[in-house]
Amino acid sequence: METEILTKPTVEVDEKKLKRQKRARTALRIFGRVFEKLLTRTVVTGLENIPKQGPVLFGPNHFSTYDALILMIHLPKEAQFVGPGDFKLLWPANLVVENLGLILTDRGSVDRHSLKQMEDVLKNGGMLGLFPEGGTWEKGIHDVKSGAAYLSMVTGATIVPMS
């Protein structure tokens, strides 16, 4: 169940918020697949290689905002995702981020609060999607940040590289 991962953090849980997040994630998966079929020629391969249970850390390259949508509609629905918390998002993106329950992180520093949230997901056997480069870049692959390696080391999570 998707809420299983969401209900295990060390902070108090708001059941109403969890239900809203589950509905938002389901809607995103449905509309995302329709969008993908109608407007793109996306080919996703290798899904059979994804571990069925965690802790698993997905580490894809990040070329555009579309990458996050592809991950959210094709990875297991239980997966949690990390998003940018260091800049103000405009409507409707701010509503999407809030309702999906993304773990927001300040990419320019060591954000201990979000790191703790990510650790909680993985230590409870969850799945986490995290872009190791820390953002999108115009010129191919950028330097990878150390967060994914750290999280794998302290939680024992398997890192699944993706492109």
What would your notes on this structure say?
The chain is α/β, with parallel strands linked by helices and 163 residues long. The chain has one domain. The chain is built from six helices and five strands. A five-stranded parallel sheet has the order 3-2-4-1-5, sandwiched between helices. The two termini are 27 Å apart. The N terminus is likely disordered.
Strand content: 5-15%
Q: List SSEs in N-to-C order.
A: HHEHEHEHEHE
**Strand arrangement, major sheet:** 3-2-4-1-5
Radius of gyration: 15 Å
Largest sheet: 5 strands, parallel
N-end to C-end Cα span? 27 Å
Total count of helical runs of at least 4 residues: 6
Question: How many structural units, i.e. domains?
Answer: 1
Mean pLDDT: 82
Q: Overall 3D geometry?
A: globular
Strand elements, count: 5
Strand-pairing-aware structural class: alpha/beta
Which blocks of ≥5 consecutive residues have pLDDT under 50?
A: 1-10
Report the helical percentage: 40-55%
